[in-house]
Specification:
alpha/beta, VC0802-like, Rossmann fold, seven-stranded mixed sheet
Length: 415
């Protein structure tokens, strides 16, 4: 396979469990028609530019994968035999570097690290047999190419991982804080609330600031991948070489004989930056902890959205929402889907928090939403259904999500 020359191949977009619905909506908004999907992946067809675009723009996905092999595989020896037939010498530079990661559920494998080692051996043995030397390998996603193995039962799929580090690692969360919400989950919750970036967004109990930062980036139309310095596709052989006939409209004019994949991607990033919005609606983030607010501000600086978010250290009930609720009650604003949104991610009593104290907290959240947030869309995500009942508000929708291993629900209220 030659990723840079092939014009049509399957692209698998993986995501966390329950996020596929929102990833599919993103993919469709980009103009792609999915050809397959499950609860944790969406499949489209495309080529070089599509791999770049998906890595740059997806907010709810984890990886963009290109399959190299799919077939029966019962034990690690068979894995080696199948993997060594792949033309790795055309994908990984002999003087380069690559990583191997895997998800394995096979009865014959007791040590789940072994398949990654076997696959690594197959890659280097193949390249050494063809070119007389071998590339280095290790676990550093900031270097070289990435290979991913998904082995479930007797079926193994070997992918070229064009993302490298998961896309959830945007690069802005310098200080995560305690029990942080993953960026992709925050983006999916914002989408599930129906918030389109044209109305105010409020994030009380903001923690390290992830929901507010994701909201600001969405409102600005900022490509989430534009913050990252490295993707897995940058380590694929030929990334810096000229492709005859390819063009990059914003690149330097000397492209009569074609441009490199590197130039194409840089051109895409530049175009995304030029299309960002300067003026966005108010975004407010508050937390009772001054330290949390300080951490959120540092993360917002790293994301380049510090000036787009108003931060305040206060109890959530002191969050100044009246300025928004007074403006949002008209029928016109509701009809247009531009309700201001207020999003809560309180402790669940699983990783953090005392249950009795949390019952009082959830009761206060319900009162605050009912009394102070009229005309808004309210969202509250929790992994504790008993605590959700204490909110004592009628919800319009209940959306399933996983926060890491925790089975959660996002409750949506039209206030």
């Amino acid at each position: 396979m030659n990723l840079w020359k092939d014009k049509d191949f399957p692209i698998i977009i993986s995501c966390a469990k329950t996020l596929a619905l929102w990833t599919e909506k993103e993919v469709r908004s980009f103009g792609y028609e999915p050809i397959d999907k499950s609860e944790n992946y969406v499949v489209v067809r495309g080529a070089l530019r599509d791999v770049f675009k998906l890595n740059l723009w997806l907010r709810t996905a984890h990886r963009v994968l290109v399959p190299l092999f799919r077939g029966q595989c019962r034990h690690v020896r068979e894995l080696y035999d199948k993997a060594v037939t792949i033309d790795w010498e055309n994908l990984i530079d002999v003087d380069g570097y690559f990583t191997v990661s895997s998800v394995v559920h096979n009865f014959s494998v007791r040590d789940t690290r072994l398949p990654s080692l076997v696959l690594k051996d197959a890659v280097v043995d193949r390249i050494r047999s063809k070119l007389g030397r071998r590339p280095d390998s290790g676990g550093d996603y900031d270097r070289g190419a990435s290979v991913f193995l998904h082995w479930n039962g007797d079926t193994a799929i070997i992918y070229l991982d064009t993302s490298g580090a998961p896309l959830s690692k945007r690069g802005y969360r310098k200080i995560p804080g305690s029990a942080p919400m993953q960026e992709t989950l925050a983006a999916a919750c914002i989408d599930a609330m129906g918030w389109d970036g044209t109305s105010p967004f409020i994030s009380p109990m903001c923690g390290s600031g992830t929901p507010a930062i994701e909201a600001a980036m969405k409102a600005m139309n900022r490509a989430p991948g534009s913050l990252r310095a490295r993707f897995g596709f940058m380590g694929i052989k030929g990334y810096n070489q000229i492709i005859p006939g390819e063009k990059a409209p914003l690149a330097a004019p000397r492209q009569r004989f074609g441009v490199s994949p590197e130039t194409i991607f840089k051109d895409m990033v530049l175009e995304a930056a030029q299309n960002e919005k300067k003026d966005i609606p108010p975004i407010l983030a508050t937390d009772i902890s001054p330290e949390a607010i300080q951490n959120a501000q540092i993360n917002a600086h790293a994301a380049g959205v510090f000036n787009n978010i108003t931060f305040a250290a206060c109890d959530f009930a002191e969050t100044d929402v009246q300025q928004f609720s007074r403006k949002s009650g008209s029928a016109d604003s509701v009809e247009k889907g531009s309700r201001p949104a207020i999003f809560f991610n309180p402790e669940y009593g699983i990783r953090l928090g005392d249950i009795d104290e949390l019952k009082a907290l959830y009761d206060r959240i319900g009162q605050f939403l009912a009394d102070s947030c009229k005309g808004m869309t309210g969202g509250l995500i929790t992994g504790n259904p008993d605590l959700a009942k204490v909110v004592n508000l009628e919800y319009k929708h209940r959306v399933p999500f996983y926060n890491g291993p925790i089975d959660c629900r996002l409750f949506l209220y039209e206030l």
